[in-house]
Amino acid sequence: MDERALDKLKLQELLRRHPADLAEIISALNEEEAVELVRRLYERQAAAPLGEMEPEAAARLLSQLTRDEAIRILSHMDPDDAADLLAELPKETMREILARLEPTKAKTIQTLLSYPPDTAGGLMSPEVLALPAHMRAYEAIQFIRRKAEEKETIYYAYVVDEENRLLGVLSLRDLVLAPLNTPIAKLMNTDVVTLPPDMDVEEVARLFDKYNFLALPVVDAERKLLGIVTVDDVMDVMRKEATEDLLRVGGIPSGEDMPLDPPISSVKKRLPWLMGLVILNLSVASLVSRFEATIAELAFVAALMPLIADMSGNAAAQALTVAIRGMALGIVDWKDLPRVLWKELRVGLLAGLGLGVEIGIISALLWKKPLFGMVAGLALAGTTMGACLTGGAIPFLFKRLRLDPAMMSGPVATTIGDLIGIGLFLSLVTVFRGQLL
Ligand code: ATP
Ligand code: MG
Predict the structure, then answer these.
(1) How many C-beta atoms surround the C-beta of residue 193 within 10 A?
(2) Smallest CA separation from ligand 1 atom 29, residue
């Protein structure tokens, strides 16, 4: 078999895969190979996997193709995917491509581009199945047969009046199970859960979670049907947001910092924060220097300072993660702060007791000074309580100040924990200085 035939065979093999698998394969290739593969697929075949890829990656790939190739692929793409992809291209390129797409398609995409990407409008597909209210069940089924291809989903049909205002909803199941002659107006459910186009994705996700529908319709202020948001789109966005939040907890300011990015781009994002934290940490250093006399006299206490500081950071980080997660999920907000603090106080008390006893016994044995064990235990117990309270409170304060709570809460809480821990430990040591000598 010659090489061409073999290649063709492999291509056919690839095309049997799901577009999402194909998207994964394309993403794993280097740029040259990816372009090569996309070129070999027919436009229609390339459109689906490109729509499944991360929009930034798909846009990068598309800009390697000729303008004509790009336009032909885009014209086969679902408008919501095409809009996401175009949004990643330079404004000039985007305008040029839009001008050359088929006018109705271009208009749809342009409307989608006008909604912020993290809103229901930005997520929706305009290809929603809308049925005129006068239809009977059999007419609706015929209608769906004809239109199914171009609709985002046909599991739900939305019933509209002449002005495209939403009147009700019925599922495919409702429709096929009904006697053929039933008017759909009789079948439909008129108590429809809808999304306004400007609703934030987090709120959209909450509604999906609450009602468990596969899709929700988007309507404007006059109840005109604009589009449909399907659960898979919401999942994509939520996964992205979750990753961004996680990165930010570590004090990495931008969600764009990725494991395999060039080092210099990661350094640019991280170093400014780290440099700022050096200044913040100098406050701990200046606190320590106030106790110079004590440390000089009782040098052995210095051995426990890193442990106290680290543990305060650990306890704060736990409380903080719980608070940020709670806020992100909408379980708690500012008004719940007292309840959260009351809870963290009790957690800190019990955890502190446990840790205090642990370190107390160990230090008493190691240094053969029961009093030092008691001082260390007390300091760690107090620190743990302080750290739990700090970690629990800081994300709420940040949010209140309109700062992103996920961004710098971690480092700030850790430093405050250090201040409390080291301050308490060295103060106690100073108080018992005479007996510890
Ligand atoms: P299946 O559960 O087998 O997928 P189903 O018909 O039960 O089929 P569901 O997704 O469970 O489909 O929907 C249940 C009902 O919810 C349907 O009768 C449908 O009319 C209704 N429904 C769908 N979307 C909405 C909505 N946005 N607001 C209110 N009701 C809706
Ligand atoms: Mg059901």
Answers:
(1) 13
(2) 192
Ligand nearest to the CA of 154: 1
How many domains are contained in the chain? Answer: 3
Instruction: Point out the domain boundary residue: 81, 114, 147.
Output: 114
Q: Which domain holds residue 193?
A: 130-239
Atom of ligand 1 nearest to the CA of 213: 10
CB 133 within 8 A of CB 167: yes
pTM above 0.70, yes or no: no
Ligand with an atom nearest the CA of residue 177: 1
For the chain, 437 residues long, the average pLDDT of each consecutive 10-residue run is 64 83 86 85 81 88 88 88 90 90 89 88 91 94 89 91 95 93 95 95 92 94 94 84 68 61 80 83 89 89 91 92 86 91 96 96 93 94 95 91 76 88 93 88
Measured in whole angstroms, the distance separating CA 282 from the mean position of its chain's CA atoms is 33
Residue 92 lies in a domain: yes
Q: Which amino acid is at 31?
A: E
- 359: Cβ below 6 Å to ligand 1? no
- Dist CA 260 CA 251 (whole Å): 18
